[in-house]
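TICKET #2291
ISSUE: user wants both folds in one file
ATTACHMENT 1:
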Amino acid sequence: MMDNVERAEDFRQKGRSIEIAQPRDALLGPLKLLPGTWQNANPQIPQGWNMIALPFGTEPASPFNYRLLMNHYNEKLEFTTVDKAVPNRGVDRVMSPSVSLDQFIVTLNYIQTINQVRAADEPNSGKAGNDGLAIHHEPGLFLNMTNHVTKSVDIARMGTIPHGNALLAMGHFDDSVDIFNGPPTIPAISGLPVGVGTPPNLQGNPYLAPYKHFDTNPFFGTVPPGTPGFPGFNPVKPAELLTLGMPQNVLRTTRLAMTTNLQDGGISNIPFIVREADASLMESTFWIMELDEPGFDGEPKLVMQYLQVVMLDFFPRRDGTAGAIAWPHVSINTMEKVANPGDTMEMTTVPAV
């Protein structure tokens, strides 16, 4: 196995190339299990769920001025093309005379498409949308920084969203911590807004009535009511369904955790979004699980779960603190890998400069 110095020299000699991504390609590093197509096992009753609070014009006497939208969704996440040995040029200013520094990045492109299978909001706005409505499309890149990392940042995600957002999230991957035997432990999180009381009082605060509604009446989407072991999607504990939907025969897990709240990461938004519901923070964790059963390609079957939280800032805080209320937009899903990139596309290796 090559070390970072040897790999950099190999990249320098071979040059940059763009090609169909191959599963388990060592040059992808932490990203090597991602190439291929990931989908929900049952498109009629998928395992994708999200919640989002949105500004909403209510009656003058209403104690709140937003609606809480719940989505049950079907997702396709494709990782298809790898761009190897992408060079970043620099200079070691400590050395005298100065010497060139070349950082090499291996990138993996992705396209995420999501259609809702059922939606509901509180209060009922009539705007939740029909079954089958497209609700998300995101092209982007995952990055493996192979050398000259800064402050341990060696993985990243870049994404663009048609609403008018562009994000850069980064993270640190440690083999000894982020690859482990068995299933992951999903963290318990709250979907309640920050800035409406400490802690938010779901029972005693009329402003949180939409959350109380879905806490009392969890959202079932297309899941038949009364399904054993299924409590519904609850905005108070939105990650709960990941634990309940986790496979029971997980051999090994790879964790990829990234946040926009690290070094020079962040989210850029068009002016309307900044004014109305500013997307200020994104944190996402992907757990890629290798199961004790064969997949479609003879390798261990792969299942991916993710937990993503985007904070939307709008309306003045109601707890006496300056600033805006931060509303968690939470998305979760459980998907299976169903195809390799070469099974669904043809592409000739392209040298690049």
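ATTACHMENT 2:
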Amino acid sequence: MAHIKKRRLGKTGLMVTELGLGAMDTPQVKEGGETLNLALDLGINFLDTARIYQGSEALIGEVISARGGKSFYIASKTINRTRDGSQYDVDRSLKLLGVDRIDLYQLDDVLPEEWDRLMAEGGAYEGLLIARERGLIDHIGITSHSLEVVEKAIACDAFETVMLEYSAFYRDAEKLIPLARAQDIGVIVMRPLGGSGRTSSLRTRMAAGQASLTPTMLLRYVLSNPDISVAIAGVRYPSRVRENVHLALTYDPLEEAKKREYEREAQQLF
């Protein structure tokens, strides 16, 4: 039986499947539990959630309970910006997930103007350090759409992972990926298919015969980058899980000429 390839998540040392599952929208459909179970059954071992993702942690907790325990990695996040707030969120996540500790906890969607506050005494980063000392979380990461924040996170040696946006549609962060790899910081890619809006629009154009680029081609583009650790594809339905896993099991990395071709079509589409 074929298995999804695994990559090392930087200095965390975790060996994660290069295809992960983003569970932000999964609870919004009745098939959400089926979607998560199928992803795990097919070999995905990295689920990404957050306190702000309504119902997501609780749904994952239900899946863990039904499966008789956790046999995969969980990454969650806090948008709280204070020491006490981030600690509260960790405790709340633990309760909803029904676990004793969380593999990776991240400061979520950090803006440049928030950096100093987050990293100062009394900031959210200190709260996560305390949570790690208490044995409630194993590793600390950060997520941001800001290149400035990601650069600071790579340079400061405070984080074990960074989550950034990267796809054939959005390549601004591409130059930062090898810098993170050089510092042994795990790179988690959000929106590898360009985000739900672009993906829905792309499927509409495909149906109308207006696009040859497909979501799985976009996923192949991201997975072809050897410096990323895991691509988080957000899914609601089991059919999308099967589609993504099939790609992960069968793809060959793109050659540079083909990557440029995908990039050109992506830019023409949007």
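RESOLUTION: both attachments delivered.
EXTRA DETAIL ON ATTACHMENT 2: The two ends are 38 Å apart (CA to CA).
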